[in-house]
Every structure is written in C-alpha cells, then in structure tokens.
Amino acid sequence: MEMYPMYSFFSEEHRILKRMVRQFVEEELNPHVDEWEEAGLVPREVFKRLGELGLLGIRFPEEYGGAGADMRTTVAFVEELARCRSRGIVMGILVHTDMSSPHLVRSGTVEQQRRFLPEIISGKKICAIALTEPGAGSDLAGIGTTARREGKNYIVNGSKVFITNAINADLFFVLVKTAPELGHRGMSLLLIEKGTPGFEVQRMPKKLGMHGSDTGELTFADCPVPVENLIGEENRGFYQVMSGLQIERLVSSVAMVGHAQQAIEDAIQYAQERELFGRRLADFQVTRHKLARLQTKLEAARQLTYAAARTIDEGLDATAVVSMCKAFCADVACEVADECLQLHGGYGYMEEYDIARLYRDIRLWKIGAGATEVMYEVIAKKMGLQEQERRAPSEPVRAESGR
Amino acid sequence: MKIVVCLKRVLDTQERVEIAPDGKRLVSTGLDYVMNTHDECAVEEAIRIKEAKGGQVTVLSLGPSGATETIREAIAMGADEGLLLEAEGDEEAWGPKSTASALAEALKGLEFDLVFFGLESGDGSHHQVGLAVAEALGLPAVDGVKKIDFQDGKIVVRRAVELGEEVFELEPPAVLTLVDGMNRPRHPSLRGIMLAKRKEIKTIKVAPREEPLRLIQLRKPPERAGGEILGEGKGAIPKLLEKLHEAGLVR
User: Fold this and answer.
1) How high is the pLDDT of residue A1?
2) Do the chains contact at A16 and B34, CB–CB below 8 Å?
3) Alpha-carbon distance B133 to B99, whole Å?
4) Which residue from A212, A259, A288, A380 could staple onto A89, CB 3.0 to 4.6 Å apart?
C-alpha cells in the first residue's frame, strides 16, 4: 500500500483493516459515486453495510457493538475510506462516526447509550451535528438557537445551516442556548430526533463541491425536545463541543491526506501516459520535481496526523497539535489538488478525470471543521500570543516590562 | 468437518514489483504483502463449509515471522486457529519441495478431514506444493477444484477441464487445490480483526530440507513491440485476414 518503505505507524490489525477498507471502497463505493454525486446524497444502505463491517463504532464500547479500538485504528480506517472518489460521501460518513455520535459516548448517560448506540453502530440510524447558524460559525458563542425549559421538555427555537447529513440523518446533536444571558457558559447539547414536531429540514442544494453529501438547513419552531435528550450537563454544551472538535479536526485531516495522496497517484499515472513534444510528461524534470515536492509536503502532513493521533491515544491535550494538523493538511491538500489539476492541463478542467471533482471537494476543508484562521488563533494562544484589549487612542502607551 | 487451509503471503501485485539485483528474487518498493488470491478463496470455502456443517478451520502457513498478519487476516474472516511454520535459512532454500515437506510434517500433527490449498501462488506459480503434500501424506488429491458438494457422506468435487468438467467422489481425508473465482471471499469485519488480534498464533521454527530445485535467474519478458494499425472499420478486414493467415491463426 505504501509508495516507499518507511517505519510503520500501524500494527498488524491496522494493516488488515486497511486492506479490507480499501477493497470495500473499490468494490462497493467507487462504482456508484457518479450516481450518488448526481443524487446529492448517499443511500442509507451504505451506512448499514459499513455497520455490518463494524466500521461505525471503531472506538465505541464493545457492549453496544463497537470495537473498543484506539485512534490509530480510526486513522487506518479514514486513510483508506478517503480513497472514495466522492469526498462528500467520506465527509457524510465521518460526520456520523467521528463528529457527532462520539458525544453520546463521551457525555451521554448509560440509559442514552443503551437507547441510541446500537442503532448508530449498526448504521440503522444516521447522525448529524448542528452547530453553525446563519449568523454564527467560527464564533460559536454567538449562536441564537434557544431551548427554554417547560415541564418535561425543552422548547427549541432557531435555525442551523450547512448541516452535513441533514436529509439522511435521524439523530441531530444540536447546540442550543439554555441560559442565553450566560453566553458560552449557558449552552447545552440536545439530541433531537427527526420527526419531532416543529423541526424541519430543508436541503441546501447548490455547493461548490462535496456534491455527494446532503447539506441542509434545520429550523426549529417551538420544537419540544424531552429533557432526557440532554447530552451531558446543562450549560456545559460549549465545552463538550469544543473537546469533541479535536477528533473532528483530526479525522478530517486524515481524510484530506488520503484524498491528496490519491490525487498524486492519479497525476503520476497521467504523467506517465500523456505525451507532449514527443516525450511523456513524466520525462520532463519539472514534472518529476513538482510531484516529488508535493509528496514530500504530503508526507509531512501525514506524519502530523500520526503525531496528533498518538497524542490523543496517550490522553494528552491535543489541541495545539490537532490545530496545526488541520491547518497544515488543508493547505497541503489544496496545493496538491491545484498542482495536480494543472498537470492535467485542459483535461484537468473537465469532469472526465477525478481531479476536477477533487479540486472542488478539497477546498471545503480550509473552512469546514474549523476554519484555518481559527486554527491559527488556537495555535497562537498555545504559543502565549494572546490578543490584548485595544487601548483607547488617548491613553498613553506605557512601556511593558515583558511578561 | 475439520479443514486445514494452507496459505501463503505474496507481494501485493498492485505494488511496483521489480527483480532484485541478484536476479533471484522479486522486491517491492513498498512493504505490503497480501494473501495469495487462490488461497483467499480456499479460506472462504472452508469457512462456508464450517458455517453449513460445523467443524473447525485451521490456517497453516510457512513464511517469515511477519506472515502472522496473513494468518490473522484469515482468522478475522472466520478461521478458528492459526499455525505458522517460521522459515529459517535462506529464502532460496525454500523451493516447492522443501516447503511441501515442512507442511506435510506439520500436517501429521494436526487432525483434519480435508486440506485446502490455493491452486498456485501468485509469486512463484510453481503449482506443486499442494500436490507434493498429498503425495508425502499418501492422500488422494484433486487439483483445480471449482466446486465442492456433500452428498450422502461423500464429498463431490468438480474440476474444470477443457470443454467440460470432471466430477470426483471422495472420502476424507483428502487434499484439494482450489481455484480463484469459485467464490467471492468475504471482507473480514473489524470485530473479526479485533478477535484475531487477541488470538495467539502458534509458531514452530522449521529449517529447510534439501531442495532439488534451484532458481537460477528471473528475467523480465522482452519489451513488446508496439501494435500495428491496419486501417479503420470494414476496410481493414482484408489486411487483417492476410496478417492472420501469415501468422497461421486462420486457415
């Protein structure tokens, strides 16, 4: 599977898993991706099939059908899943496995886990997470969706946008304000089921890329959500969501690396077949150096994903390394996509080759799962570079005596 | 029904494989080994028989210590036990004869009704080991089996031959070599992979016996000349016929 020999981040079981996932993607996903891209969503059966193979509960408890495995196993899975020729489908699957349902394992009660996890792990129920709103994305504390306690229910009002799996999902993890006056200290995470009165989903059909993924808008109008669907503690939702973001960012980074690796492999093949000026494209030194440089950067990006996964497996605070990983992988993957498209010349601009779709799809990742700018803010903060309050213009500037 | 499946790990043919400088081995630029394709079908067939009739599937492989990965893959698919014959000595010393003799020796210590092999390996392609093991154990063998049925306590196996098939009836114990394509091997599930991870693979070190067969030199096939375009559409037919006559392919 590797292009060149290198120490293995993976153990025996991971390599067996990788071969299995690679075959599954080649045999059961890739032959259908054009159809699914056209339809704008993946059939629910795909989730059931992933469930049969045990791929929807990799790190989840075995008592509910999970595999109880580590982050490295997830990395092995995602690297190979990313060879799916529809990056939108990959995103939909990862939203289910790593961006939404882990909240139930991390913060849910035993009762909640017993109720929902078996169907999530078997793929009978599909999950989504709803944080972003028309007026608040990176600025999560600024969301306006509220949940007011009324007897045995929360009454939810507000709307969410850019929600992946919106059409397919049965279970939505929704960030709401239970105490709006407390800002980010007054937010909670609710599990809202499809079909709850007052909850509507509308498709957001036109996107630059990720056409295989069903993106939608959610609206809640006096939507009653049973109190027992509160995930974690009331008013701790912001912190729960923040801690979950590390895994979301890592898996998206691993996916980007997988996508970019495939783009490079495709470009190598193209460069060895395409002739111009009587020679193969690969016979031009500029082509070889370009691909070698991209592969070198991509290897660095990949190693950063391994470092981040290791940090998480060792139970350390992975915020800094994950943020670096997310920002760097998105940069490298977009660069790879751009350069590989260029290498294809005019054909790269046509739908005939996968690179056109990949180029559109990959661009999302500088925005989704935490914009690159937000990543840099997090990293800077970890470096001790915090923004200070702006001084009033009249105030004299005092000499600072260091920190 | 107790079945032992003998399998081999081979270099992934999707990798770029080249001939080593000594001209006697293949080397891969990557490091990935996979289960030989014919053997994968043999594992699948054994598991299907176990699922239908009960019994046990044991996987036996001769190879380096890293071959436990391939054995575990078979266990992840549904095999029960694994045994590795860890090959000592030079790779060159392990030809078909010495491999068959080590496997036969190990099989004497195992209980079985049937022994399955894949038809041949994807790397050496000698197509000898299965039959040599049968010979060493004094057991009946059918080579190139494409279907196995059970009727009134008998095992009915079919093998493809030109223009038809041969049908054999046999009683265990017997050795069968199975062909790729007789079934579609399942994907191991992650649950199976995690179970296989915890499974201890028994390992026995084996030294090569004398190997009468020596590999002298591997060579790449000569570069093929580019094709010739004779024309387009119907107009090309006369010229094509002429060429086919010249080559003696039509009369």
Assistant:
1) 57
2) no
3) 9
4) A212
Instruction: Say if the Cβ atoms of B188 and A20 lie within 8 Å.
Output: yes
With an 8 Å Cβ cutoff, is B79 touching chain A?
no
Produce one character per residue of A65-79: b if its CB has 16 or more CB atoms within 10 Å, e if not. Answer: bbbebbbbbbbbbbb
Cβ contact B31–A8 (<8 Å): yes
Going by pLDDT thresholds of 50, 70 and 90, the confidence category of residue A166 is very high
Task: Name the more confident of B249 and B205.
Answer: B205
Q: How many CA atoms lie within 13 A of A360 on its CB side?
A: 19
pLDDT at residue A394 greater than cutoff 70: no
DSSP A65-93: T-----HHHHHHHHHHHTTSS-HHHHHHH
Q: What confidence score (pLDDT) does residue B29 get?
A: 64
- Domains, chain A, with CATH or none: 12-126 (1.10.540.10), 128-233 (2.40.110.10), 239-382 (1.20.140.10)
A276 bridge partner residues: A279
Catalytic residues of A: 248
Q: Dmax over Cα atoms in chain B, in whole Å? A: 68
Residues whose CB is less than 8 angstroms from the CB of residue A135 and which lie 6 or more positions away in sequence, other chains included: A142, A144
Query: Which are the contacts of A5, defined by CB distance < 8 A and separation ≥ 6?
Result: B29, B30, B31
Q: Of A1-5, A339-343, B24-28, which one has max mean pLDDT?
A: A339-343
Q: Which fold has domain B2-206?
A: Rossmann fold (3.40.50)
Domain boundaries, chain B: 2-206
Q: Would you state the structure tokens that stand for residue B206, as one six-digit string?
A: 């084996």
DSSP letter at A293?
Answer: H
